What does this fold into?
Amino acid sequence: MTPLLSICIPTYNRAPFISELLLSIENNFLDNVEVVVSDNASDDETPSIVESFIDRGMPIKYFRNDTNIGADRNFDSCVRKASGRFCWFIGSDDVMVDGSLGIILKKISENQDVDVFLVNKSDYDISLKREKKVRRALDGCDEKFDLNSDQSRLGALASGLGYIGAICIRKESWISVDASKYIGTAYIHVYILQTLIKLGRKFMYVSDSLLKWRFDNDSFLSESKALGRLDIEINYIRITRDVFGDGAILDRVGRFIMNSNILWQIVSSKLKGAFSFSMFALVFRELFWIKGSYRIFAVCLTPGFMFRIARDMKHCVVQYSNE
It folds into this structure.
């Protein structure tokens, strides 16, 4: 029998975390669900960890690529190897909240006309012990989207697609979009979802927080370094221009990505001493047209030691308040 839902887990060298994710799925497991792990040639303990869950009876379809085929191809491969009518991506360092599978299965069953469910999450530090408050593009939105409504609603929807674990998509809808041009952007899923928005497919926002996400645990940062990671964030804006052209949606997406993803990336690079003139040049060349971009240029020009002082002062205040 074809399962209703495939939990799709693309992974690469996440052995310290994937056991915690699989355990959370095991504790939530329900009928009509399968788990698909697409391992992008990890050279850590990932294979043995996944095999240990298979050995104790968890229904996991485990695929290991011979070589690292890149994030985008691995996302796509994970969907194509899945058997479910819907595919829910979950990051291999995330953790499923208790009751999440029941909620998403109920949403799918009760909303047969929806192609994409966008799942809310809670952001935590890397230990999953301290929750962080992060602004989201879809904050305050109703659960059901009317794609014939005003441009600001479409802009909010188009802005909230970057986090891969937020996506539960009808498999045939994913496959229907030719995204080969965007292999290598790390945002193939953004192109697919924005294309579905433009085609008028139905979306639904699941406001319940179904996942715990480890903030600032970005594998792309270690693989592509700071400049490459910044370019990935700008890819989101480039894709939006390709799909929607210039106009209100691009303006909304550009401002949101600049003030959240890109600003965070620059500050993180400053704190780690990884910011370079090449990063400033990239930001200036790509973002000068966005309203309010002067703020991000000011952050670029602020010396890194000032951010480190501010961080250390904050840590001191938090420690003092806890004593």
